[in-house]
Write a structure and sequence with these properties.
Layout lengths: L2 E4 L1 H14 L5 E8 L3 E10 L13 H13 L3 E9 L7 H7 L6 E6 L5 E7 L2 E9 L1
Parallel strand pairs: 1-3, 1-7, 4-5
Antiparallel strand pairs: 2-3, 2-4, 5-6, 6-7
């Protein structure tokens, strides 16, 4: 079972962004340190949702490249993606399709209607929920 560790200020930032753009899906990239069963978030890079959609999100590719380069310079690894749903914090059919493209990246989802967070990863073609620890 994978463990995703976040700082309280990261969670506050993500919730604030979700409130600000609701009902549009908020999105961000997560960077930090990875070990075998643990992902420790050290940096959250909030980015606008290019699609301005309530059902899908897209981050500008130039923004993605810049964030990856910056994280690399800081010695941080890509952990995964964050987005909000104006629905329960579970992957939608659209999410599941795109999760497969991102390999073992974690997908952190915030329900902007219920306020709860959940994280998922695709392993061996199966969706697994990660344990979230907020410090």
């Amino acid at each position: 079972m994978l463990i995703l560790q976040l700082q309280r200020h990261h969670v506050d930032l993500l919730k604030q962004e979700a409130r600000k753009v609701h009902p549009v899906e908020a999105c961000a990239m997560l960077f930090g340190k990875l070990s075998k069963n643990e992902a420790l978030v050290k940096k959250v890079e909030v980015a606008p949702n290019k699609l301005r959609s309530t059902a899908r999100f897209e981050i500008d590719p130039m923004r993605v490249v810049a964030a990856f380069n910056e994280a690399d310079e800081e010695g941080l690894e890509f952990i995964g993606l964050f987005h909000s749903h104006p629905a329960p914090a579970a992957p939608s059919p659209i999410d599941l399709k795109f999760m497969k493209l991102w390999g073992d990246a974690l997908w952190l989802i915030l329900s902007s209607t219920e306020g709860n967070l959940a994280a998922y990863q695709i392993k061996d073609d199966k969706v697994e929920e990660a344990t979230i620890i907020i410090e």
